[in-house]
Every structure is written in C-alpha cells, then in structure tokens.
Write a structure and sequence with these properties.
The structure is a single chain. By secondary structure, the protein is of the alpha/beta class. The protein has a single domain (2-98), classed as Rossmann fold. It is built from four helices and three strands; from the N terminus they run E-H-E-H-E-H-H. It has helices at residues 12-23, 61-68, 78-85, 95-98, and strands spanning 2-5, 30-33, 72-75. A three-stranded parallel β-sheet has the order 1-2-3, covered by helices on one side. Strand 1, helix 1 and strand 2 (30-33) form a beta-alpha-beta unit.
Length: 110
C-alpha cells in the first residue's frame, strides 16, 4: 500500500497509522511525504515544535523509516516542492526544511 502524507513532524502519528494498516493485513507499506524533512521549527507563522521534537532534525530517513515501521519512506525534495508550488525559489520560505533563517521584510508567504 502507498500512503501519502504532507509531512512528518514527530513521527508518532505516522507510526500509529502504520500499525493500524498492518493490523488490517497490509503486508508492505510505502510512505511518501509531499515535502522535505522538517529539520527546524518555523518562526515565521506556523506553530511547529522545537528542533529537539522534530524527528528529522536528529534522525536519518532510514532511522525514521524504522521508527515508523514502514517498508519504504520517501520525501519530496526541496527543489521538487518549489517546482510544485510555482513560487520562485527566491520567494519561497524553506527555513523549516533547511534550518537556515533569513530576516527579510517580505518572506514571500511565510
């Protein structure tokens, strides 16, 4: 089964869902995330946990995959996300994906 989700923050919800899917009899779970890994909190408008609470800030994709309990885990690249939005890369806020924070007057929709 292929499961698509928008993001993984702590990993706990994905882990619970994977267990429920397995209990339903699914043999293989392929989890696809439609954003890059969240490695930094958002200080520009979205209330996200501190860095230490973000599973991707201190774990590899393989470690996250094992924690969640899925057979494969794939994230969309930052380039892929920017292309999908149609927003120019220079106006796209990527701080939570890069852990690099710009101080600007207009963050382009942060």
């Amino acid at each position: 089964m292929v499961v698509v989700d928008d993001s993984i923050v702590r990993g706990t919800t994905s882990r619970k869902l994977a267990k429920m899917i397995r209990m339903a009899g699914v043999k293989k779970i392929h989890l696809v995330i439609s954003s890059p890994p969240n490695i930094g909190p958002c200080y520009y408008g979205i209330d996200t946990p501190s860095k230490k609470e973000l599973i991707a800030s201190s774990n590899s994709v393989e470690e996250i995959r094992k924690f969640i309990g899925v057979d494969t885990l794939h994230y969309l690249s930052l380039d892929g996300l920017v292309k999908a939005t149609g927003i120019a890369g220079s106006k796209f806020c990527s701080a939570c994906f890069t852990d690099k924070y710009k101080i600007v007057d207009d963050c382009g929709g942060c």
